Amino acid sequence: MSQKNAFYAQSGGVTSVINASACGVIETCRQHSDRIGNVFAGRNGIIGALSEELIDTSKESAQDIAELKNTPSGAFGSCRFKLDSLEQNRREYERLIEVFQAHDIGYFFYNGGGDSADTCYKVSQLSEKMGFPVQAIHIPKTVDNDLPITDNCPGFGSVAKYIAVSALEASFDVRSMAKTSTKVFVLEVMGRHAGWIAAAGGLIEDYGIPVLLLLPEIEFDHDRFIAAVRHKVESQGYCTVVVSEGARYADGRFLAEQGTRDSFGHAQLGGAAPVVASLIKQALGYKFHWAVADYLQRAARHLASATDLDQAYALGKAGVEMALDGKNAIMPTIERVSNRPYRWEIGSANLSEVANVEKMMPLDFITADGFGITDRCREYLYPLIQGEAYPQYDERGMPRYVVLKNELVKKKLEAFEL
Predict the structure, then answer these.
(1) Which CATH homologous superfamily contains domain 156-301?
(2) CA 5 to CA 254: how far, in whole Å?
(3) Cα separation, 382 vs 379, whole angstroms
(4) Domain boundaries, the chain
């Protein structure tokens, strides 16, 4: 089999373990140097391919590549850039193939969420038609945990751990002050359409914390919510609310909608936490504090789940092995074998079944009142946050996070207008 180069890119919002997937891809490619030549990484994601800004990962030492497992965010840069459909903008897809052809790239590893799966699938289709076959493998990543077929997504376990721990610690604080001060703490978490991250906040109930969840899957009812807050505070003295950024009214409006759209066409959300806190203040007069976890939740490598880290690396490694086995247009997946003890294995899914499909929380994961999680949800969540994978710290007390050289290869094509 002739040797081909590989292209790897990171897409969308990054996570605390996406670099572990990159490490899995690059290290596994290096172990098969007889069949895979160099690994080029896209500078700032797929834009790096379109603009022919290809990072030469062969310039990075084995040690630095290994340190990616301990480093948060996207080491090569990511982007929110969705390619239009083939019918709307065929030129971008053809440009990708031209760049791949110019640099003898036969393997395409795209590390991202649902939109990335869609792009990966389209590239695999078009490359065949253009006479330059490229094996396109999607490496799953999303803190939202909303990709179908796979049991869970790399990035989610660590966010879930961070939110559960942070909500617990803040709730202990509120409990200690509730008699004369703050009665309600509101924490906003990510999750535009699916409430997986907010659900992790429900785990603090196991510590006796009075908590209410506001999930995208359950329509927000003002009066029911206010009544629930009043009940929690009157019966237990305080209350924690974990609200998903995607919480919405019955008519579909987000609690936090600003009326603007991002580059993917998604509604831009301006902050559900202050909205919820204001509603509580107006209705009940309780003193409150609110916080938005925002980037902190997905960048918190210091509190990553060991399970999540292991799975992120394993899926990057599996993606390369599947490509070497001749697979194309697929995504390696996590298949749960058992909960106690927790065991999982690698499976796969066809990209035609993954692209543009979102996985919501099952209704039997949500309590009948819509404000909490069931024992079945707990059984699902706890294994994913198990284990600690702390980074090493230097003598100053700061983590040893690697910064790569990210040297670009020489361009071979004319400039391309994005």
Answers:
(1) Phosphofructokinase domain (3.40.50.460)
(2) 45
(3) 6
(4) 4-142+304-357, 156-301
Name 235's Cβ contacts closer than 8 Å, sequence gap at least 6: 210
Place of tokens 């490496």: 139
Q: What are phi and psi of 273, to 5 degrees?
A: -60, -50
The DSSP letter of residue 391 is P
Q: Which of 84, 104, 118, 144 is catalytic?
A: 144
- Could you tell me which residues come within 8 angstroms of residue 63 by beta carbon, excluding any fewer than 6 positions away? none
Catalytic, 144? Answer: yes
Q: How many CB atoms lie within 10 A of CB 86?
A: 15
Tell me the per-residue pLDDT of 378-416, one tens digit each, with 9 for 90 and over. Answer: 999 999 999 999 999 999 999 999 999 999 999 999 999
Find tokens 């916080």 and name the residue: 291
Alpha-carbon distance values, 263 to 12, 80, 92, 357 (Å): 11, 7, 16, 19
User: CA-CA distance, 52 to 410, in Å (whole number)?
Assistant: 9
pLDDT tens per residue across span 159-215: 999 999 999 999 999 999 999 999 999 999 999 899 999 999 999 999 999 999 999
